[in-house]
Automatic annotation (TrEMBL):
Residue ranges, compositional bias (Basic and acidic residues): 1-22
Alphabetical list of NCBIfam families matching this protein: P_ylase (TIGR02093)
One annotated GO biological process: glycogen catabolic process
UniProt-recorded name of the protein: Alpha-1,4 glucan phosphorylase
Documented EC number(s): 2.4.1.1
UniProt record similarity statement: Belongs to the glycogen phosphorylase family.
Residues where N6-(pyridoxal phosphate)lysine is found: K691
Amino acid sequence: MRTDKKDESKNYRKGEPARETEESGSLYDLLQQYGCGPIQFTSEDGLYERHLIFDNVSSLKSAGSRERFEAAARSVRDVLSQRWVETEAMYERKNPKRVYYLSMEFLIGRSLSNNITNLLLNPIVKQLVEKKKIDPIEFLEQEPDAGLGNGGLGRLAACFLDSLATMQLPAMGYGLRYEYGIFRQSIKDGWQEEQPDNWLRRPDPWEVERLSEAVEVKLNASFELSGGSLRVIPGQPSSLLGIPFDRPIVGFGGKTINTLRLWSTAVPNYFDFAKFSGGDFVAALAGTLAGESLTRVLYPDDSTSLGQGLRFMQEYFLVACSLADLVRRFRRGNADWNQLPAKVAIQMNDTHPSLAVPELMRILLDEEQLEWEQAWDLTQRTLAYTNHTLLPEALEKWPVAWFEILQPRLLEIIYEINRRFLDEVRRRFPGDEERIARVSLVEEGAGRKIRMANLAIVGSHSTNGVAAIHSNLLRTITVRDLAEMFPERFNNKTNGVTPRRWLHLANPALSRIITEAIGDGWITDLGQLRKLQPMAEDRGFQEAFLRAKGEAKSAFADWLKATTGQGVDPDSIFDCQVKRIHEYKRQLLNVLRIIVLYNRLRDDPGLDVRPRTFFFAGKAAPAYRLAKVIIKLINNLAGTIDGDPAVAGRLKVVFLPDYCVSLAERLIPASDVSNQISTAGYEASGTSNMKFMMNGALTLGTRDGATIEMAEEAGEENFFLFGLTADQVVGGSGWYDPWWHYENEPETRAALDRIASDAFSRYEPGVFRPIGDALLKNGDFYRHLADLASYLEADRRLCDLYSNPQEWARKAILNVAGSGKFSSDRTIAEYAADIWGVEPCPVR
């Protein structure tokens, strides 16, 4: 072994990461560095070959791409395993305060390439790929995206775990191991169709099942099969088992490897042998089917009471398993319950884990026999809550009846919390019964409900929003009464994304020129991108930036052609809007813009315009009918434009089905324009806006969410902002009339008339009538027509700028330079200092 590698290994054990160089050694050397010396190899790629042969019992020649992927993944896991064990052992020895991050979603994407990058294994893997003549694209495509999330909430949680590990903070993520994820989206005749996302169909090489650490979750009801449907039997107690599956979360440089623990359901003693032997197979398995279905799917269709009940049960199962596990960890090193807030910080990611408040109280009161005042003090000082939305439908409210059937003890605790809380409100605001009704944890009415956001705020010591405008609106409008009660608990933590995945890994061309210009320190300190500001004026760097963007666009166009057969022009403007399909995110406003541009070209075929490709991607909730109609309109518009020779080569619309992390990693680096066009005051923060910004796309957007702060960092003159402000939207309920825009703006009227005339639905007349109803008949709640003219004007300015490549590059580089604030490392540092009170715990 070379001397320089030995020295490097010693540095690594002192906490310094092994550096990537063209002369990095073998996998054997890496295992020495990571403390796995006893394993012997016959060649530098023997670890890979061992897994290829012995795990799958197949010859090297007959192994397929999937077997090769699994062998590579297990080889990488071997490299990190001892450091993973050492990380947990260090936490046990030092007993630091630990963060436990509870989230219903963790949209982690594929793990192989990310773990290779964070372990600095790229040179060795490159050698292996070349030696074994492996097609890296085909190889990486064998790993499905983990079906553990839907959108920004879950991707933020994944970015936070990356930052926690990179910053060597003792932390653990808790989620659910969904067998099928949310759903796999396909498009048929323009409509979204949902199929099972069976991402666990093949063994997942990253997860480790921990049967010995299973948790029992007790319910006050059981289930039976009646008439082909599952029926709840109240008052007949039953149990579920939470089986933990652990996944490694690798910090950059491999110094710390934290854990994401996902819970899967199992059912003890539900198999009725007598019924099965008698031939009643379904009845014999009814309880098992009911219990084990709990973690089948992320976010079951909540348009029915049964679907809502399943979601409620998922949330309680997550909380019950996670709290039992973290309490077990706390007990191993602590005997004094007064130390709980000094050793444990529990972060509730949105309202989904809000049941942690009464569940922690139940543990402290019933199992540990603490007095109420002490238990309540410990609960509040241990728990913290992040709010991610201002939408009323997203501030969950669960029927009291479900608590009565499934967890009556939690309901008793909630009622007592509420009684004591309302007594305090009455003391502070005597006679204000309207305020009491607004802040109560119980919403009165024909069907009484528990307000989960109120429960989370009252039961924790911190409530944070995720962008400055969002935190202000949360405090002054959404939960104003509670903020007046507890002003010291409210704070802002603007979101961020990990630069390791979203720039360093996803955009190697741009990453390379940045590193050549300012060094690689930006990978763990994104604020260093400020050093690029002078480079924005440098003609040579501008040209290098444009080449990097062109490389990413060509790579995306090639991938799209190879995987879907659809061709796009990489020299066109790549104009993107990729996010969950929802009225407030206003994909429909984007569609109206495109129809106006289409009408202009039809009216004046000689119009000189730059070729443009408009990309859409995102999923609609299965029960969200209007969102599905919007997807249908996008696809029909795409087909109409493709079939019109008057606009051939100048306009193209592409809907990319089944949007996921892996698709985003390809599209975002290739994008020229980022549409962030939510109705002002409705987007909490956004994170795709940050990813586009740090990859050099220019933002065409409203003053909403974190886009406001992004424009402050890079300069509003380098953004294309338009539309109503949040104050104007809030104040517009009295004066806004969509019919005024229809009658007074000819292009608006022409666009709506074209939709209404079935120009995009010749064979399905009337299919888009709900669009016209939403925009005109029903009052256009999200103010699409109020912002359309301003949107078109900003779009004109954007196109004018694109005709000047050097000036476009200058503004794009300034956007990259200004994106340093939006690293999840900065966000996590603020959480750690202001909310959690945790410090790094380096692994030796």
